[in-house]
Amino acid sequence: MRVAYVAAAVFAIVYLALDLNKLYALRYGADLGTYLQTLVNLRHGLSWNYGEWRPHFEVHDSWALSALVPIVALFPRAQTLIVIQVAAVAAASIPLVLFARDLGVPQPGANLLGIAYLLTPSAQGLAYDNFSENVFVPLIAFGGALAVRKRLFWPAVAAAQLLMGLKEDQILFVLWFAAACALWWDRRMGVALCALAALNGLLFFGFEHFAGVRPGIPLYGLTIRDPGGKLTMIALLLAPFAFAPLGVGRWLLLAAPLLAEIVFMQPWNYEPSRVGSHYTASLLAASAIAAAFGLRRWPVLARATVPCALIVTLLIFNDTVLRPGRWPYIVDWPAYARAVAIRDDGRPAVLGRRDEGVWAVAAANPQVRLDPHPDSHAPACPAYDTNAPAFFASLAGRLPPHLCGGVPVTP
């Protein structure tokens, strides 16, 4: 297990550095600030935030995030959520390794599976993207799978309940896999988890109905948008594991509801099949668990997992900095200092939509608002992350011209 712990630690250190660079460069989107302000306000019992302009618990069934309130109360900074995000994605590799080992995969093969998970574009994107409830999905799903495998009733129930407390779609997923558990593994545990999922669904959708609100979910239809992108997503979920998930055969059909959530989603904020987005977190967890079963059937594939994951992650499919031709963002320290000043000032302020990076930093101030209207006339911020000379010049304190650093604020 020492190899698995070292791999998780290296991943966490690398992505903590990259995420902080992204934060200081004001390149995070609105979600990081939205969750930060939600947790800051939850200290006083209300999940209101000015990123969504309503209580977050009306948008998603994310009550499990309440567990983070004491931590954010002690350290009300965006950096706190970044540390939690990276730690959650990295730590998930440990229960995955334990699960594979419990299946009968030899320890070296189980360690390689854990490393391959960390190298997947999906896991790296999850650690590098905006904060989301879904950053906890692999950790809880792997822990829950291990509990079910060992027939540990109450740990399995606890994992299922935490998973359903992340987002409303997890209720349906837990119900689906609980039914499969009742049919083919442990009837008592499966029936109990089905009942728990049904109760969670009734409580959440009942709350939404009586509150007269609608959860923040996209529309669905039979039209498949960007079918090539969907096929690419599937390939990029399987390839880092040397296609070992195919070893489970027809049991892959159990992932159909997880895949349908993305395949039949109609145009949304951005393409959900983008590998690395939080929408793929459940599919990533399912792929890794299936890979563990596949390695039990085809143990020779274990040695191919890490090379395959490296090939995928070093090509253009990786959505983070760790691919040839990309560099960390250039940090305009005066601009970041102005964002910190807004955070620490304590007075009301309104930020434009193009200043989502500033919002991510300043949202710890409950008085800061993000304008809900898009600013279509705002100039685009150049992507200097492909300009190596500019990056090294910034380390010496020389910023390239026209770097986005303005922080327009409306009192």
Structure, briefly:
With 411 residues, the chain is mostly helical. It is 58% helix and 3% strand.
Structural class: mainly alpha
- Strand numbers in spatial order across the main sheet: 4-3-5
Overall helicity = 55-70%
Instruction: Give the DSSP E fraction (strand runs of 2 or more residues).
Output: under 5%
- Kindly report the oligomeric state of this protein: single chain
For the largest beta-sheet, the strand count, sense and barrel status come to: 3 strands, mixed
- What is the count of helical runs? 19
Q: Total strand count, please?
A: 5
Shape by Cα distribution? globular
- What radius of gyration results from the CA coordinates? 21 Å
Low-confidence stretches: none
Question: Secondary-structure element sequence?
Answer: HHEEHHHHHHHHHHHHHHHEHEHE
How would you state the average pLDDT, rounded?
89
Rounded to the nearest angstrom, the distance between the terminal CA atoms is 54 Å
Account of the 3D structure:
It is a single chain. With about 400 residues, this protein is an all-alpha fold. The strands form 2 sheets. Strands 4-3-5 form a 3-stranded mixed β-sheet, with helices on one face. A two-stranded antiparallel sheet has the order 1-2. Helix 7 runs parallel beside helix 16 and helix 10 packs parallel to helix 12.
